[in-house]
């Protein structure tokens, strides 16, 4: 698509995505986390749309629309509805405090830039975007590891998926069509499944703190 | 799911599994008479290795469905399950089997990823089927850890696609395994190195490789016994199948030193860790789960050795483990019914309480521990001699030690559970006869392949080894 407005907008959006991901590490209210995820997905959908426009590729447009439908609307909506019915609305007692997790995240971002450089895209203006994509995946994973609340773990998982999607988009301009459909289908189903488990946890444990899940050992 | 009547649901479920089995056998017939089934632009690709997996999935799947007939009924009789949930059970079970079949019949590595994720989702619903706190915990860990792992595998898949851009098709990449294999020497080596690490960790999580295994003992012990059998015997094999395909591909790109080293390291860590955990189990289903980690570790280790003999042994071991472990989990389900406990300490004098189940349990544990004359002994010997003859003495010795440790642990618990005075606790006797036939078939097959490998199986294994580039 050449050096025009498109790549510059993509770069700006990707910086916003990285900033938002770092911000998510500091969020403790569950509903804030879910809203942040919805915005995160919206930014991702915008990047997808712009890449689709640059390529003139219909099936990337479809991916953008699917992103909006599944990750901006359906999953955040049902999760927020569930969280608003819970008594505990924020996570207490973090395993790792926010400043420390911030420092770890910066380290992960440096690692991500190494991975992105080793792939040596070079020819495209998207090296930084790839760094962001890998960093977002790693920070999503970090979120899953350091948070004890199940809702936050789900947000971490979904954030990680967003990062991977961005990496796939930048590296390959979209996977084969049926594979892409399959990936979206899986994300939708796994979102629904996790929602079901959160509901059951809320119902039987009166909490989504995974510290209560401690019966199975060894 | 159309009807609420349990007996009708069971009939449909059983008939469905027979139809699937018949389809599996006809695929086997077609492929073994010299054909490779391809179609839908490479989305369907069934060669000898896929055919072998199809036969394992459909036959063990049918075994699990038929074992479920009695197992689930007994659960309903004891009030563990509501009768209205039977239809969901069979529904999920068939979706699970379908997802596994999809993963092995597709020649597209992206579709393989989609199918693997689908197996997690379908089987998670079965893991948490009892709806108690422990099964919720197991299912939660299972979904979260495997989804994260499989996310890494997705990144590996994307990188594989990226490494092929402009090589196979002029203006794009491909994920068609056979096309990638043909052009392996022209794929981008740096990218494929990176891709293999992500794929190995990602699908290794599903295969239960240490240190990504923490979900496995929980999920395999909390699921209903027929599902445990499928998870341990077949689903792990499907994940390993993916690693086998990627290993062949990466070996074609950058030679076997790099993937081989990674596989040997992961394999050895898994074998050693699992053998230590086997020594200190209190729950016999967890014991079997750790034994699965050990055996998958052995298969991965054998893949890493990379010699023709070791590859042959790896695939053979995969078959043996699939059949014996799934049968053993079914037997464990029956023991759980008889003694109403999964605790090793609560099962006493099994052979006295139930001579038939007890005998099959003894045979099963001996088979899985790798004692002669069963199939797993044969394949372990093949793998180790493959290691020693290819000059990898040290790692082969390191692998041998924990295998012996695990043997000791398994036989110790076997004697504690089977012999001695019977428990004072009241026991139940299962009056269903069909499970006995299933146990007999599974263990019979193990005995036959342990004593001699039929010529057609030998030819099949040789053929698979060759197609994977073994020399």
**Approximately how much beta-strand content do the residues of chain B carry?**
under 5%
List the domain count of chain A as a whole number. Answer: 1
Radius of gyration of chain A in whole Å, from Cα? 18 Å
The backbone outline of chain B, from C-alpha atoms, is globular
User: Multimeric state of these chains?
Assistant: heterodimer
The tally of strands of chain B reads 2
* Amino- and carboxy-terminal Cα gap of chain B: 50 Å
Query: Which pair of chains forms the biggest interface, and how many residues does each contribute?
Result: A-B, 41 and 50 residues
Strand residues, percent of chain A: under 5%
Please, what is the average pLDDT of chain A? 86
The chain-level structural class of chain A is mainly alpha
Q: Write down the secondary-structure element order of chain A.
A: HHHHHHH
Helix content of chain A: over 70%
Uncertain parts of chain A: none
DSSP helix fraction of chain B? over 70%
Describe the main β-sheet of chain B briefly: 2 strands, antiparallel
Protein name (chain A): Hydrogenase
Keywords (chain A): Cell membrane, Membrane, Transmembrane, Transmembrane helix
Membrane topology (chain A): Multi-pass membrane protein
GO cellular component, one term (chain A): plasma membrane
Please tell me about this protein's structure.
The complex is a heterodimer of chains A (218) and B (471). With 218 residues, chain A is mostly helical. Chain A is 78% helix and 0% strand. Chain A has one domain (5-205). Chain A has helices spanning 5-26, 30-55, 58-84, 98-119, 127-146, 150-172, 177-205. In chain A, α1 (5-26) runs antiparallel to α2 and α3 packs parallel to α7. In chain B, β1 and β2 (44-46) form a beta hairpin. Chain B has one domain. Chain B is mainly alpha-helical and 471 residues long. In chain B, α5 runs antiparallel to α7 (189-207). Chain B has 18 helices and two strands. The interface between A and B is large, with 41 and 50 residues.
